[in-house]
Amino acid sequence: MVQKGDKVMNPIECVDITLHCDNVHKAFEEQRVLGDITLKIARGQFVSIIGGSGCGKSTLLNMIHGTFKPTQGRILINKDGVETEIDGHSRERGMVFQHYSIPPHLTAIKNVALGPMLSETSIPGRMLGRVTRSWPRLSREHLQKAEEWLVRFGLKDALHKYPHKLSGGMKQRVAIARELIMEPEILLLDEPFGALDEEKRTDAQEILLSLYEENMQAITRGEKPPYTIIFVTHSLQEAVLVGDRVIGISRNWDWQSEGFDRHPGASVVYDKVAPIYSKDTPIDSHQIELQAKELRGVVLKGSNISRQTYCTFWDEVHNGRGRGVMSGHGERDE
Amino acid sequence: MRTLIKTFKPLFIIRGTVSQRWQIAIFFLAILSIIVGYSLMAYAKDNKLLPTWDMLFVGLKRIITDPETGDHYLWEDTINSFSRIIPAVGIASVIGIVIGMYMGVYVAAEAFFSRILTFISNIAPTAIIVLFIVYFGYQFKMYVAVIVFGIFPVIAKTVFEAVKEIGDEEIFSLKSLNASSSEIVWTVLFPQVLPQIISAIQQAFAPAIIYVISAEWVSGSSGFGYRLFMFSRSSLLELTFPYLLYLGTVGVVTLAVFNLATRILCPWYRKETK
Ligand SMILES: Nc1ncnc2c1ncn2[C@@H]1O[C@H](COP(=O)(O)OP(=O)(O)OP(=O)(O)O)[C@@H](O)[C@H]1O
Ligand SMILES: [Mg+2]
Description:
heterodimer; A: alpha/beta; six-stranded mixed β-sheet; 10 strands; globular; B: mainly alpha; MetI-like fold; 2 domains; 77% helix; binds adenosine-5'-triphosphate; binds magnesium ion
């Protein structure tokens, strides 16, 4: 994989890699969950991750978030051109979880404003700021910014509602806004819409698509795309629809022929460009079904998959597919 | 007969719904059965112990205002005992909250306190009041110490359990919002577990009253315990019973006050059972 990565890196030199997993392994005691994961994720990408249940998707995201350290290998994050190894949690990496969204005692708007408050001020700072009047002013700015995010996400009527008055989908949108207000280098979404019904799910997907749209506009203007997202889902269609790149993780790969003497754990068996949809390009459900079918065959039903066969993402990029997303300039190919 | 069965049937369905009106009716039924039960015992032929209703009524009037001395027992005792209970519950709450909050987030603090708290909470302070008297004398400090010793472990444990309930995901996401440890504990988690804290303090109130009564019984010259001691020494059941009725009412009123506090301080809070 490393060698493969090197090969494909050359043609597109301006690729701005935000996240680099370098031969990452993760075991919990004797249980080897993830093995030999090498991934480069470029700024502005929306990467969907698919995998059977219990294959280690959440573990991978938790490692990137900073909760676990890899047993072997490194995970590097690129901030302003400087690559640093991940060590613990930090505001560069936000995460939204499947079973938890936001604390119950703060209204939607205060929940979103919590991030700026916690990261820009401290307890003594706020106490002093109450006296000098600087904290109320700053707090108003935070709330205003929070309001803008919530309005964007269609939550204008829910600004001052407590979480127990919000639906599951609304709570997850608040949680996403809460992370995005921090302007993270990368946003990790672990099955954020897993518990939603079909209709609410579509609303939530719309939000991600609108963020993607913003990335495209930034690229057209020659600016850095603002959002990089890794998105775990168990819906194959959702993976293809929301992501511009789909990654499949599975335990059923031919580790013997790659020279491992014990099963190293699940690894990346599928990595391909996915079609891009924006507000005005209609969704081509036939194309989505085709790729979903391929994904099901390889990632969920496949056995003894060679890691090379379906990991063609960077080759595709090399051949001009999906380039617009990665290069940070130029227009999209379609 | 059939309609009768139909009317009462809902009351005997497991997890069934019973209308508000029925619930109130059942409450009055409970009161009525106590009154009837007591009357049967008090007016039985061989009863020499239990005071009759008119004796109780006279007793009640007497503990409100004693016609001979002009003392207002209930009022004076309430002031005396509560001036001990309230500061003690306050101190115990502060100690319990601090210990409980940190136990909930630091495994080391949990390891340090967990067993010790269980141990202390199993020592009845009523059993060692003499120790407190030797140490603090017959003073305000002694009453406070007995109550604090008796209730802070329970408050700490309840707070700890409430914080422990909060999932790792929340803590991790707060960390990635650059929250400092004290911000996580005091700015976010504390208001989040405030309903459980209020309920823990409320539940500590009943034992606090028991402990103050015990301490006053042994040592006091004032307060609920002293008064009950005086009554019981002269077997004045017609005074003791109305007095206990009053103490029970105090408990009901404090519960209402705490529930109101929860509603005002934590408007976001909904009990899971409703
Ligand atoms: N903290 C942990 N300690 C020990 N084992 C763990 C831990 N976290 C995860 N595991 C194990 O790692 C494996 C992968 O778990 P993970 O939650 O990453 O899977 P997943 O792909 O997210 O599954 P799902 O589709 O159910 O969300 C599981 O077998 C799980 O038991
Ligand atoms: Mg998972």
